[in-house]
Write a structure and sequence with these properties.
This protein is of the alpha+beta class and 667 residues long.
Length: 667
């Protein structure tokens, strides 16, 4: 059954009819309902009506406007546009915070913090997400919202699950389960059973995972929670396939597909179809579902459903392995490597090595078959010569003489080939040693980063608790020391993330989109407001292009890094003055960030862009010397370049280019 699209539901049809019959001034609630109804059905329509909600909110109460921005942000998160969703949620948070004079909007603020935490978690910023969930708990508690508090605790468990701290994850899940039992929220209990099952599945304890899934399924049936019934059936079918219990897997898949079809659950139906294709491959050794799986993969990419896309790639890879198409299998594995969490990438790296060797082996087999064909043809030629030799001794004599001369030349060629093969074998051994050494270095970088970041999370978490519970009782000096601990832990956590990103080659994929340049620069300056005010820095923004096509998150990192450097390397006798400008030079946007700081020795202007190479006169500054290296890497992937303007003598000026023509590279 195809799951690429779904008919408009009766609820949506009814709302659209009401919309036609309602006055413009009374359409606000209908727009809000339509925005909710299109979730999971049609992203474009859902966002269209969410924008209508915002537009109408400008004419109504301030709390409705804040609610509209909140709705738009959560909707974008549902469609996995996390960066843009964060912007809308930040705006909603500011508006609700202004309205929260009497504390009546604590639940809304808690919900926004929870959404922001989810977005940061999905973007890999686990430490930031934990801080946001803790902040959300405080807001929910201020409004005595125990249910919202439980939701935040559940998400904290998911963060620990993602970083493979399963013991802590289970502890938070069970805390959340107790609260849901206390409140009688059975739907929440179903979610927790599902999360516990997934945790045990990651630990390869399939029996325990199945127990939790069954508990969740029984409860979901009792309360008629159809969405989670289908979700749990999908998860259970995956485990049955792993356990090679194909009969039960087929039964569960059929039940899930029937419910998904009845209630038009598009994405869940696609997950079940993936398992159906995988089951057919395992049982019947048939690739008849290959086209269907490919269509689901294209649908997921078009709709922006990252998790569905990842699962469809996993199943496609099995089909390619079955067909012994190791080249395609290797391509998919490389895509999975770029999308996977860097801390759990070692398995994919080893798998890539295996697939590469299999691909090389297939080429070798093909070459050997060609050699056998050539040898067979040569033997037939010799037999023909022997037959013709019987026709005359004279012809045979002259031909054999020529053949012997040819054989002597062939022997000489064979000796040359043997020598070349020996040289090639020695070079391959050297290359393998390099590959093994490189893999060990990457493995060590991942392991070391994880070992460092775990105690840093502990330091940061306990510092936050100390700040929350005991800050007012400390003297000013102790408060300052506590702030140093919190900021230092966060800084070191970011440094280890940069080291891991540099060591493993992560973040190579660009997600290009058209952005508002001035808006992005303004947001960066807001994020740096504290350090700008503390250092009494003056920031001047000149003419900038209205729009530019870049990877928004990576481009933001370039601007933030260069401004932070301009403030960090200030002149000791004057306050920082920084200018941001852009000129159109030929077919590029040329950005320049100029400061009045300590400047850069022209002889060192190239050295500073290399990782871990810091200038001697800046050794007392924070950092490990990889920020500019990462900036250069990002800019070059966009097709541009970065340099230091050596003609500018009153400080430092960094310039970089971004090509104007990027339309063809838009994702």
């Amino acid at each position: 059954m195809p799951w690429l699209s779904a008919k408009t539901s009766p609820t949506i049809d009814s709302l659209l009819i009401q919309l036609e019959q309602t006055k413009d001034s009374e359409k606000y609630n209908l727009y809000l309902s339509l925005s909710n109804s299109y979730i999971g059905v049609d992203k474009a329509q859902g966002l269209f009506y969410a924008d209508k909600v915002i537009a109408d909110s400008l004419l109504v109460m301030p709390d409705q406007l804040a609610e509209a921005y909140q709705k738009r942000g959560h909707l974008l998160l549902h469609y996995e546009d996390n960066a843009t969703g964060l912007e809308y949620l930040s705006t909603a948070y500011e508006k609700f915070l202004k309205l929260n004079v009497d504390g009546s909007f604590g639940s809304q603020l808690g919900s926004i913090c929870m959404g922001q935490g989810r977005a940061e978690r999905l973007m890999g910023n686990n430490f930031k997400s934990l801080k946001l969930f803790l902040k959300g708990i405080d807001h929910y508690r201020s409004n005595n919202d125990l249910s919202g508090e439980a939701n935040c605790i559940n998400h904290i468990g998911i963060v620990f699950n993602n970083i493979h701290d399963f013991e802590s994850a289970k502890e938070y899940y069970l805390k959340c389960q107790k609260i849901y039992e206390q409140l009688g929220e059975d739907k929440g209990r179903v979610y927790i059973y599902n999360n516990l099952g997934y945790l045990e599945e990651q630990k390869n304890d399939y029996n325990m995972a199945m127990e939790y899934y069954n508990l969740g399924l029984e409860l979901a049936k009792e309360i008629d929670f159809t969405t989670m019934i289908v979700h749990l059936l999908s998860n259970m079918s995956s485990i049955y396939i792993k356990l090679e219990n194909y009969t039960d897997a087929q039964t569960v898949i059929d039940k899930g597909l029937s419910l998904a079809s009845e209630y038009e659950m598009i994405r869940l139906g696609n997950f079940l179809e993936l398992n159906k294709g995988l089951l057919s491959l395992r049982v019947n050794k048939s690739n008849q579902y290959f086209k269907r799986i490919s269509e689901i993969n294209e649908f997921a990419k078009t709709k922006g459903y990252k998790f569905l896309e990842a699962q469809s790639l996993r199943v496609l890879k099995e089909f390619y392995i079955h067909d012994k198409n190791y080249k395609k299998t290797l391509e998919i594995t490389e895509i999975q490597k770029m999308e996977a969490d860097s801390l759990s990438n070692s398995k994919l790296l080893s798998e890539t090595s295996f697939l590469q060797s299999k691909f090389d082996y297939e080429n070798q087999i093909q070459n050997e078959k060609m050699e056998e064909t050539q040898n067979f043809a040569f033997k037939r030629f010799l037999y023909s010569l022997l037959i013709f030799a019987a026709l005359g001794l004279i012809v045979s004599f002259f031909f054999i003489r020529e053949l012997r001369a040819s054989n002597r030349g062939l022997n000489d060629k064979n000796k040359e080939l043997e020598i070349a093969d020996k040289i090639l074998e020695d070079r391959n051994k050297q290359l393998q040693l390099y590959i093994d050494s490189n893999a060990q270095l990457k493995k060590y970088a991942r392991s070391t980063s994880h070992d460092i970041r775990s105690p840093l999370r502990t330091i940061g978490s306990y510092a936050d608790l100390l700040h929350k519970n005991n800050f007012d009782s400390l003297d000013e000096k102790s408060k300052m020391h506590l702030n140093f601990i919190t900021e230092g832990a966060a800084r070191l956590y970011d440094i280890t993330a940069d080291m891991l990103n540099l060591a493993t080659g992560g973040g190579n994929e660009l997600y290009l989109e058209k952005i508002k340049t001035i808006s992005l620069v303004s947001n960066v300056l807001k994020d740096l407001a504290f350090i700008i005010e503390m250092e009494k820095a003056e920031i001047s923004v000149g003419k900038l292009p209205s729009e530019i096509i870049v990877d928004k998150i990576k481009f933001r990192r370039i601007i933030q890094n260069l401004i932070e450097n301009a403030i960090k390397y200030r002149h000791p006798e004057r306050s920082p003055k920084i200018t941001i400008s852009c000129l159109d030079v030929e077919d590029t946007h040329q950005f320049c960030i100029r400061d009045n700081g300590i400047g850069i020795d022209p002889s060192k202007s190239e050295k500073i862009f290399k990782a871990f190479n810091r200038l001697e006169n800046t050794i007392e500054k924070d950092g490990i010397g990889i920020g500019l290296s990462i900036c250069r890497n990002i800019i070059e992937k966009h097709g541009g370049k970065i340099w230091v303007n050596e003609k500018y003598q009153d400080g430092a000026e960094f310039c970089f280019t971004i090509p104007m023509d990027q339309e063809s590279r838009l994702t």
